[in-house]
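Morning. Coffee machine broken again, so started the prediction first thing and wrote up yesterday's gels while waiting. Chain of 278 residues, entered below exactly as on the submission form.
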Amino acid sequence: MTMDLCEALKSATKEAHERAENTQFMRNFQNSQISLEHFKLLFEIYYCLLISVFEELQRLGSKPQLSGLLSPGELHRVSALEADLQYLHGEGWREALRCPPATSEYVRRLRHVGSEQPELLGAHAYTRYMGDLSGGQVLRKLAQKALGLPASGRGTAFFTFPNISSSNGFKQLYRSRLDSLELSQQTRLQILDEANRAFQLNVEVFEDLQRLGPSALRNGSSVPEGGAEIRQRTVKRPLGDEKVRESDRAVTGTPAWPVGVVVLSVAVLVAAFLWFSL
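Came back before lunch.
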């Protein structure tokens, strides 16, 4: 009997998943060893990746056989992430958007897959969205505690899914959509390989962050400018009339937290954050 696609994905990526969870980056996050500068860059990275995943998945609307890959509205996090970035950076966050080398490589892979083998986007949809949904609440609380971010959710809206009442129920629904795709055996195997590649790309993203110290991030050095393409492609929609309260705005000027030499640890993409149990 053929294993369901999502069950096969979970089994085939078990080792890669564990490697991502056990990076130094991830262990630091779980221990609340977070600098504000790393947190800001992490959200910039998430934005680069989410825009790419979202755009490539939306193009599948012209391919009915792959419609099951289209991301449900409940999973759309771009607007929430834009609000977080505006809160953390201020109004000019789009012009300051940074994509470190490993993130740029991840984006290139997403664009290539979307153009040449769109069915393989199933691997990225699975790892991205299931990871975000699984780990979001845990990571939100860790970030709020370590960085003193407001309990109202400002600065951590990306981690919340207000339109999903039961994360377990919704994950089951989304898995069933992926399992319903009509795929050849060869394509299934390619999706499994691509999912492992997605985990490895996320590990490399974490390693990039780990190499960057908070002082380098504050000075803007050691982070190559790779965000130009993303800045040009993003849709500049209004975020509403709500203004950042003066008491909240102080977060953009907060000095690095005295937690030693720390690195932030998905959320996918992930997201690494993103790699809590799928």
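Residues 27-215 form a domain with the Heme Oxygenase; Chain A fold (CATH 1.20.910.10). Going to sketch it on the whiteboard this afternoon.
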